[in-house]
């Protein structure tokens, strides 16, 4: 049971084509999680309110990363339970639908959720059954290589602070 549009339709995420999964995904994910932590450590309340694009702020970008990492956690749980690729159906309009909620979220909470979600999904992926991991990866590398989704948003946030 797949669902909605694939993760590959996200307009701002890195597009990479992979033939097979290799173990470097864990290090790439860990590095992007460290980027979140490092960015969070230097953010002031004013920084969190800085615009990133037309409608987002740095805090909204972090809340967005947390949401999509949580979706990956749900997909990992469902895939492992069923023993085959399974993920919650979703449409990318969810970003527009959730924007007012992310904007209303206290910025420090967005930071906390981004770090917590990234750490949880990195840990879960590192110990996930290899055959199921390969199936997720074959569907879309960003199910496994979370850095492909996180890094472009972190780049935008860091650029807004420069």
Task: Describe this structure as you would to a colleague.
- The protein has 162 residues and is an all-alpha fold.
- It has a single domain (22-161), classed as dinb family like domain (Four Helix Bundle (Hemerythrin (Met), subunit A)), CATH 1.20.120.450.
- Helices cover 65% and strands 2% of the residues.
- It has seven helices and two strands; from the N terminus they run ααββααααα.
- Helix 3 (58-82) packs antiparallel against helix 7.
Number of helices: 7
What is the percentage of strand-forming residues? under 5%
Walk across the major sheet and give the strand order.
Answer: 1-2
CATH superfamily: dinb family like domain
The largest sheet is:
2 strands, antiparallel
Output the helix-strand order. HHEEHHHHH
Primary descriptors:
disordered N terminus, 7 helices, Four Helix Bundle (Hemerythrin (Met), subunit A), 2% strand, 162 residues, 65% helix, mainly alpha, two-stranded antiparallel ribbon
What is the strand and helix layout of this fold?
Blueprint: H1 24-42, H2 45-48, E1 51-52, E2 56-57, H3 58-82, H4 93-104, H5 107-126, H6 130-139, H7 147-161
Antiparallel strand pairs: 1-2
Short description:
It contains 7 helices and 2 strands.
